[in-house]
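Translate structure to sequence.
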């Protein structure tokens, strides 16, 4: 079992430049123009609950104080990507890993490596939603159980990718965005709800069989009925991953290991 090395980092707020605040402000204003009619209600309410503002980068001390009072979660500063073991360990302690650097303007529409706007603007507001937080804790338990099994971790990453990062949800008969990868991307926010996007009902088995994309907009999206459905799918996720592990099915990272899902099979949502 790996050992968790705590990374004692702080936000170092005073080091943000005028340009950093400008990038945050431009991205924030761009998204807040369009997201009220695109984003899940829980996200829009979460923006207010954690106190985000257009004109300045959020202070994590203030964000943590708000989150602790709402769901008991906090954000935890990391340098960038973290390995699986520390990532799932932090989630298990109700600590969401976030970085502190901001993209430059050349990557305004979409960025491959997550920056602070993705981590904080995209993820943090939903940490005010209890069923969503319950799902994260459940994913932490599964991830830590299979931390030394690459195939299981690939399957877990697919679930995480198509929910936490690129998930959609139905609310009052309307499609809404809850995935942070979409919420922090002006371009993909528009694309995922358009007629050009292919959408499926949320289904654990289908997601496990679906590789994801990092370099461009997603080719498939999965749609929840509710956050309760997401949280209550944890036992099935654990059961199906255990079945794949028991059958010793090797899953290559981001590779299709069963039949591909064709566009024609999509249920238009």
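Result:
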């Amino acid at each position: 079992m790996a050992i968790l090395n705590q990374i004692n980092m702080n936000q170092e707020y005073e080091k943000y430049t005028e340009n950093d605040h400008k990038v945050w402000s431009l991205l924030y204003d761009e998204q807040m123009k369009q997201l009220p009619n695109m984003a899940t209600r829980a996200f829009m309410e979460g923006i207010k609950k954690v106190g985000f503002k257009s004109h300045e980068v959020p202070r994590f001390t203030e964000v943590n104080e708000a989150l602790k009072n709402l769901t008991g979660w906090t954000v935890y500063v990391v340098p960038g990507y973290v390995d699986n073991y520390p990532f799932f360990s932090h989630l298990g302690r109700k600590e969401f890993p976030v970085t502190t650097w901001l993209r430059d303007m050349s990557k305004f529409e979409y960025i491959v490596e997550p920056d602070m706007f993705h981590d904080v603007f995209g993820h943090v507001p939903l940490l005010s939603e209890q069923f969503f937080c319950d799902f994260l804790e459940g994913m932490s338990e599964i991830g830590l159980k299979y931390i030394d099994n690459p195939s299981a971790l690939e399957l877990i990453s697919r679930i995480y990718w198509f929910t936490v990062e690129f998930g959609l949800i139905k609310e009052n008969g309307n499609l809404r965005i809850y995935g942070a990868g979409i919420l922090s991307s002006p371009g993909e926010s528009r694309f995922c709800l358009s007629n050009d996007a292919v959408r499926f009902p949320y289904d654990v088995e289908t997601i496990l069989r679906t590789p994801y994309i990092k370099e461009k907009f997603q080719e498939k999206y999965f749609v929840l009925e509710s956050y309760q459905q997401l949280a209550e799918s944890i036992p099935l996720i654990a059961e199906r991953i255990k079945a794949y592990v028991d059958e010793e099915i090797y899953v290559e990272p981001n590779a299709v290991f069963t039949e591909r899902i064709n566009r024609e099979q999509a249920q238009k949502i």
